[in-house]
Amino acid sequence: MTADILIQVLVSGLLIGLIYALVAVGLTLIFGVMDIVNFAHGEFLMLGMYASFWAFALFAIDPIIALPMTALLLFAVGVIVYQTVIRRILKAPMLSQIFATFGLMILLRGLAQFFWKPDHRLISNSLISGNIALGPVQFGLPQFVAALGAVGVTGALWLFLHRTRLGTALEATAIDREAATLMGIDGQKMFALAWGIGAACAGLAGGLIATFFPIFPEVGSNFILIAFVVVVLGGFGSITGAFLAGIIVGLIEVLGGFLIGPEYKTAIVLSLLLIVLLVRPRGLLGKA
Amino acid sequence: MNTAPLLAVDGLGKAFDGLIANRDISFIIHHGEIVGLIGPNGAGKTTLFNCLAGFHTPTSGRIAFEGRDITGSTPEAAAALGIARTFQIVRVFQSMTARENVMVGAMLRNKRVAEARERAEQELEFVGLTHRADTPASDLTVSEQKRLEVARALATEPKLILLDEVMAGLNPTEVREASQLVHRIHLRGIASIIVEHVMEGIMPIAHRMLVLDYGAKIADGTPAEIAENPAVIAAYLGE
Question: Which CATH number does the domain housing residue A38 bear?
């Protein structure tokens, strides 16, 4: 009986952890390529959720069908943000960079509130709904599909970075920007690409959870804090690290919430952040 | 037919906030030539390299590559035209394997990953690192990392390679091997400019030597001429 509950808890932790991983992968990619922390990353997720919501509400397109469109849309948002804001602050002091992305976060939230109202919105009657029972373990089909999607997107990103010409160029830029330019790689193009892909990852995460998570302008704040913990635990800039750390954070959050009390789950995750910073500041797979 | 020299530098100057690093430097490099670039510390050798490779925009003068003005072009544009460089302190992609490092260079001219891999294998063999292909670059010795950087630069299929102190810190056997490597690069028809302090490594193989002192060119000639040039001797011994 207890074992069944434990398995149930672990499965829930794994499912949400994979979503955290996908959000964090985009954040860590942008940081890895250009050493800029994107505080507006949660807002990219929020935009992804609204994209799904409006596709469903206006055109009756199911969130799962709308995913490719959501990805493309957020890719474009990421590139536009890079070209209009980030490009101008590349050589600025770190504080200016922090304020720029922080300001962007407030701007995007404000715009969402202004145009789409602060209400919580839900997508009901989507194609994917209901529960799956696997022996004693039960979980929601939307959560399962979202987790599966997160694995697929992270896997595709890994393959892109390691098996394609463009991805290798991006990876090389992340390791040593100057040396990469000597190989004929255009740094500006790589930066724009990193923002496009980073935003698309967050947008996809938003699209994947839109079927079972309320959609509202501040929804990003629920995820960005956890995404930072994941990025720190995984090691700044490490995609594989962020993936593993996402799962670990998901498991710890749900397990801690179950053992100690759900009201403490954010406190538990943030304690983890402090422990990692004290014991192993470079994270699991970060560069020394 | 294109009769322009490979590289023509004319009156090049570079100043940083009033500090003059390069002043009125002019020289020509021919296809396939091995040219040593020497001078006391702080003579402006690395600044000159940075101007040629597109990292710095010269304050004055112009740089022409195969007759085409490339003054102030970006490093990626210089690489695309056929100028490669290595760094004084190795800058290999640490977390990639040796093969992946060279593949990044090979991808400049090979659109398919498989072709880039094949090209990388050839360059690894050329510098004698085939047996280390799958080793992460961070695990290679300094001497191996230097050769890896050369292989990565060669993989971009340059016409001119700028080698910044590839022989520094190597033992006598390794210096000899490095000299032979430079000579074999020459046999491929690739010109090289070599910043070097290890004279026994550079003097026997260089066709010509350029000497800088206080940012200006003080001599340009064969190694034998340079060795007897009073201005060069004065610069090195200090007067």
Answer: 1.10.3470
Spatial separation of the C-alpha atoms in residues A131 and A171, rounded to whole Å: 40
Q: Report d(CA A127, CA A94) in Å as an integer.
A: 45
| Calpha distance A161→A146 (Å, rounded) | 22
pLDDT digits (tens, 9 = 90+) for A221-263: 989 999 999 999 998 888 899 999 999 999 999 999 888 888 8
Name the residue among B55, B87, B108 with its Cβ closest to that of A184: B108
Separation between Cα atoms, residue A88 and residue A103, nearest integer Å: 14
Within a domain: residue A131?
no
ipTM comes to 0.85
Answer yes or no: is B44 within a domain.
Answer: yes
Angle between helices A2-34 and A219-234 in degrees, nearest 10: 80
Distance CA B172, CA B137 (A): 23
**Residue among A163, A183, A186 whose CB faces B104 most closely:** A183
The phi and psi torsions of B160 (rounded to 5 degrees) equal -140, 130
Give me the residue from B55, B79, B100 closest to A184, CB to CB: B79
Q: In whole angstroms, give the CA distance from residue A4 to residue A137.
A: 7
Length of chain B: 239
Q: Cα distance from A164 to chain B (closest Cα, Å)?
A: 6
Q: Considering only CB atoms, which chain A residues are within 8 Å of B93?
A: 171-172, 175-176, 179
Q: Which of helix, strand or coil describes residue A193?
A: helix
Residue of A168, A182, A238 to mutate when probing chain B, most B C-beta within 10 A: A182
Render each residue's pLDDT in chain B as its tens digit; 239 residues. 467 899 999 999 999 988 889 999 999 999 999 999 998 888 899 999 999 999 999 999 999 999 999 998 999 999 999 999 998 888 999 989 999 999 999 999 999 999 999 999 999 999 999 999 999 999 999 889 999 999 999 999 999 999 998 888 888 898 999 999 999 999 999 999 999 888 888 889 999 999 999 999 999 999 989 888 888 888 877 65
Interface membership of A167 toward B (CB under 8 Å): no
Domain of B220 in residue numbering reads as: 34-55+74-237
Residue of A nearest to B115 (CA): A165
Question: pLDDT at position A4, please?
Answer: 83
Q: Is A130 a domain residue?
A: no
Range of the domain at A95: 6-117+137-279
